[in-house]
Design brief:
The chain is mostly helical and 303 residues long. The protein has a domain of 93 residues: Tetratricopeptide repeat domain (Serine Threonine Protein Phosphatase 5, Tetratricopeptide repeat), CATH 1.25.40. Helices cover 81% and strands 0% of the residues. It has 15 helices and no strands.
């Protein structure tokens, strides 16, 4: 290297200058990128907050549009994916709901609510195993999530895994003993096992909390019928129909029980109501009801 001032030193000075200029360009580019990212994040937050406001106002279509804008600007916006997924779920579009909630879970794997809601959507799609998996994750992250426990218990019941269903639903009733829905589901799960008395206890508890629950009365009546407690079953079927006259199964079962008690006119009326309520559903039961009606009408003509 030459002495200071020697022409051989000039390229070194120029190289230093070029290096500083290059660093300045890189720093400016980084600052610009950071500013752009921050601006996009701020704009995404504006759309997200507007979406929440519209959601609270019941303007779901407009809320969905704003949340989609937020995600377009910031694809890793977990809260926007979560809220959008819940809105699609409310709209009954479970495919889109699942897609958004899957993104929310991917971005925030420790979010119990995201797992719980995704599990509920999977159940709506009849995807029992993935639904159970997500709900199990939700409960492991948040053991006191009542809704997740009830959903998980119901999912196990649908799968036919009654011991696990009872386990989860018992946790739910312990957590909120004054909520009827868990007691009703617990009664249904127990009714599928040998614990019929446990089922009756659960249904009675549900009806203490919600006496107008027609389905709970129907379920209790069904257990009584299987125990051959005809009078108790008839009473509960009649109460169920007083709250929900369109409960087709209650008309059918009541028609059979009335027949057993030789209350033929009452039986005929209930079986006809059953046919009117079912339309083309359950062809086997409809055929049975039609044959019973013919038999009853034939017997009445012979009198």
């Amino acid at each position: 290297m030459g002495r200071p001032g020697h022409p051989g030193d000039v390229p070194v000075y120029r190289a230093e200058i070029m290096r500083f200029r290059l660093q300045a360009v890189v720093m400016a580019a980084a600052a610009g990128a950071l500013w752009c990212a921050t601006a996009h994040a701020d704009e995404a937050a504006v759309h997200y907050n507007l979406g929440l406001q519209l959601k609270r106002q019941g303007k779901n279509a407009d809320a969905i549009a704003e949340l989609e804008k937020a995600i377009t600007l910031r694809s890793d916006y977990a809260a926007a994916h979560f809220t959008l997924g819940n809105l699609w779920r409310a709209q009954g579009d479970y495919a889109r709901a699942a897609a958004e909630l899957e993104q929310a879970v991917k971005l925030q794997p420790q979010d119990a609510s995201a797992h719980a809601n995704l599990g509920a959507v999977y159940l709506r799609q009849k995807r029992l195993d993935p639904g159970i998996k997500e709900l199990e994750t939700a409960v492991s992250l948040k053991p006191d999530d009542y809704e997740a426990l009830v959903s998980l218990g119901a999912a196990y019941r649908q799968k036919g895994d009654y011991p696990h269903a009872i386990e989860q639903l018992k946790k739910a009733t312990d957590l909120r003993p004054t909520e009827a829905v868990a007691w009703t589901n617990l009664g249904v799960a127990r009714s599928k096992t040998e614990d019929k008395e446990g089922a009756i206890t659960a249904f009675k508890k549900a009806l203490e909390l919600k006496p107008e629950d027609a389905q709970a009365h129907f379920n209790l009546a069904t257990v009584y019928r299987r125990q051959r407690k005809t009078d108790e079953a008839i009473r509960e079927y009649e109460v169920a129909l007083s709250y929900d006259p369109a409960l087709a199964g209650a008309h059918y079962d009541l028609g059979i029980l009335y027949t057993q008690q030789r209350r033929y006119d009452d039986a005929l009326g209930e079986l006809k109501k059953y046919l009117a309520a079912t339309g083309a559903a359950d062809p086997a039961s409809r055929k049975d009801a039609e044959e019973r009606i013919k038999s009853l009408e034939s017997a009445a003509k012979k009198k």
